[in-house]
Design a protein that fits this description.
The complex is a heterodimer of chains A (421) and B (224). Chain A has twelve helices and seven strands. Chain A has 421 residues and is α/β, with parallel strands linked by helices. Chain A is elongated. Helices cover 46% and strands 12% of the residues of chain B. Chain B contains ten helices and six strands; from the N terminus they run βαβαβαβαβαβααααα. The chains are: A alpha/beta (421), B alpha/beta (224).
Chain lengths: 421, 224
């Protein structure tokens, strides 16, 4: 992580990487093409599906586009943290698929498309009858086999293959494709054509095998070795994740029972936070952002004053001078709460909705009478209210004796449009 | 739509039958010790299959359900026995992965608490869930606000499942700020019952909304 100073108002990204469309595993119904396209273009998936179905009415363009994209777009696993990936591999979480409503919707759209196709066929405006059946067979066969190939590629990530179903489905797909090809080949010249074609193919294949056979064998053995290595490293990752996971459990227990020993609780809490960040990616990378800055401030105060601070952040934005001031004021408020309220828990809630930042620091402690605080007390007036107001924000301290204290800090987002420029 | 909370009666924790489902034996023991004498712990389970068997055999009032478990996790348990009307589910987890928490709520859990919750708070959450209410921890409220963010304009009609009403957003924000239901009620000058209604309604939206972002938001949170 380098810390080169950024020109103010510049987005932090350095190189431009083009967005690539992918086929998302978790929302695919057949091949994931429509879902992937929809995500890439920012459209509802149902629009893409309707467009594909409509395109199919014109010489089957939709189906062709679908098949081509199916081969071209890579299948994508959603990227997640090591803990989640491991939990997925070990079967501790269930994979979510597309919702039932979406599936019903898709089936309805497809049925409508087929209906129109049948109508066109009846009216004599469709495809040549003799080609229709083999074409359909071939498409369904290809879809079956490709879907199985997708799943086989996936099982590298999730080790769960039901061998029988897999074999049967692939065999069915291949058989359908073979039947379609058989039909087309034998249509014109009968079975003789088939014999000719087969013998020519066999001769060509034998020649090819002699030429590149050794090379293919080596490639295959390399592949096996690599796969074994990958499985091994995944197993190591799983073990590490499991280990950390149980440590996490212990820490949670320790923290709950250690009520009287503030130090133990704080240590446990910090450890828990670190592990959690590693396992579940709860805390995003340590970069320069509002949320990251709040997190590090909260952790720091927890360590210093040994009071658990519960932090919830909604939304995020890059850090600038104003936001930094807001975060420093937050730190003062949290320190005050930790030092003076006399309670064992402080709640911090930060939010950025794109127009303004808001931070709430709350404790249920002894509270104080804000009016009775001497004018020259630096804490609240200088380091919190003054600091925020100098940067164009507002600060409000709500407290009453015995009712706890809440500090509310607000700061407008200075250049809301520059971020998109 | 009948609100389940409308017929909520004060439930005596002593009559509450609770099942603990978690794959960490140590944690189960800890919770059992904490709950024993306060509620009636009817059984424990350590994975999806035993959990399903336990729920079907004992029909507890509340199942304390871990999010991550062998056999497909808490969501799988809910898929198989979540339809039982006599049993409610409270998710309990240490994972805090937003997509899983939202996922288990969408699968039918009526609340989510983190594992470092204190004993009395847990009992309170259990009775609340058994009474048909929803239990939102500050963290879940944060997730919800994040999930429904993006549409700044709030719902005009209550029935719009894809958006929170202004009032629901306020309630969620207060919960995320660490307010208990009672304090939320006081802050907004409404009754606790109204707060409960708002929270239940947010839970319903969370479960029924088809908002595309809801299922996807966690994977691609970006800087604004």
């Amino acid at each position: 992580m380098t810390s080169t100073p950024q020109a103010p108002g510049r987005p932090a990204s350095t190189t431009y990487t083009p967005r690539r469309a992918v086929r998302p595993v978790e929302s695919r119904i057949v091949g994931g093409v429509a879902a992937g396209l929809a995500e890439h273009l920012g459209l509802p998936p149902v629009w893409v599906r309707v467009a594909l179905v409509v395109a199919t009415w014109f010489n089957g363009v939709g189906v062709l586009v679908y098949l081509v994209l199916w081969r071209l777009l890579p299948l994508a696993e959603p990227a997640s943290s090591p803990g989640l990936e491991s939990a997925t591999r070990r079967g501790l979480r269930s994979r979510s698929g597309p919702g039932r409503r979406e599936i019903v919707q898709t089936v309805a759209v497809a049925a409508l498309g087929v209906g129109v196709l049948v109508l066109m066929q009846v009216l004599g405006r469709g495809v040549n009858d003799s080609l229709l059946l083999p074409a359909l067979l071939a498409i369904v066969g290809i879809a079956l086999v490709w879907r199985q190939l997708d799943d086989a590629a996936l099982s590298r990530f999730i080790r769960q293959t039901d061998g029988w179903a897999f074999a049967v489905r692939v065999a069915a797909g291949v058989a359908m494709l073979a039947a379609a090809m058989l039909y087309v080949v034998t249509r014109e010249r009968g079975w003789n054509a088939l014999v000719d074609l087969l013998s020519a193919t066999v001769i060509a294949l034998v020649g090819l095998a002699l030429l590149i056979g050794p090379w293919i064998t080596r490639l295959l053995s390399d592949l096996t070795a690599e796969r074994r290595e990958r499985i091994r490293s995944q197993e190591r990752a799983d073990v590490a994740a499991h280990l950390h996971d149980s440590v996490l459990q212990t820490l949670a227990l320790l923290q709950k029972n250690a009520g009287d020993q503030a130090t133990v609780a704080t240590l446990a809490r910090r450890q828990e936070r670190e592990l959690r960040a590693w396992l579940y990616g709860d805390e995003q990378a340590e970069g320069d952002s509002f949320a990251a800055a709040l997190r590090s401030v909260v952790t720091e105060v927890e360590d210093l004053h040994q009071v658990p601070v519960e932090l919830i952040v909604v939304g995020d934005a890059p850090l600038d001078a104003d936001v930094s001031a807001l975060v420093r004021a937050t730190r003062e408020a949290v320190v005050n709460a930790a030092k003076h309220s006399g309670v064992d828990r402080v709640d911090v809630y930060g939010e950025c909705d794109g127009r303004r930042f808001e931070v709430f620091v709350r404790d249920r402690g002894v509270g104080f009478d804000p009016a009775a605080v001497a004018e020259d007390r630096m804490g609240v007036r200088g380091s919190i209210v003054g600091r925020v107001e100098r940067h164009g924000g507002t600060a409000e301290v709500r407290s009453a004796l015995g009712e706890g204290t809440e500090v509310v800090l607000r700061m407008p987002v200075r250049h809301p449009d520059e971020e998109n420029a | 739509m009948t609100e389940p909370s409308s017929d909520r009666t004060e439930i005596d924790p002593g009559t509450l039958r609770v099942a603990i489902v978690d794959d960490h034996a140590m944690f189960r023991t800890g919770v059992r010790t904490e709950l024993s004498g306060v509620v009636d712990v009817v059984g424990e389970a350590e994975d999806v299959d035993t959990a399903v068997a336990l729920v079907e055999a004992t029909r507890p009032d509340v199942v304390l359900l871990d999010v991550h478990m062998p056999g497909g996790g808490g969501a799988e348990v809910l898929r198989r026995v979540g339809h039982l009307s006599s049993t409610t589910f409270l998710a309990l987890s240490v994972s805090d992965a937003a997509e899983d928490v939202i996922g288990i709520i969408r699968a039918g859990a009526r609340g989510y608490v983190t594992k470092n919750i204190s004993g009395p708070e847990l009992v309170d959450a259990l009775t609340r869930v058994a009474g048909g209410d929803a239990v939102f921890s500050p963290r879940l409220a944060g997730f919800v606000l994040d999930a429904f963010a993006g549409t700044i304009e709030v719902a005009q009609v209550d029935e719009d499942l894809d958006r929170l009403t202004e009032r629901e957003r306020e309630v969620m924000r207060l919960i995320a700020r660490g307010y208990a239901y009672k304090e939320v009620a006081k802050e907004l000058f409404i009754s606790i019952k109204t707060v409960e209604t708002h929270v239940s309604s947010v839970l319903r939206k969370l479960q029924l909304s088809s908002r595309h972002e809801l299922t996807k938001w966690a994977s691609d949170r970006r800087l604004i």
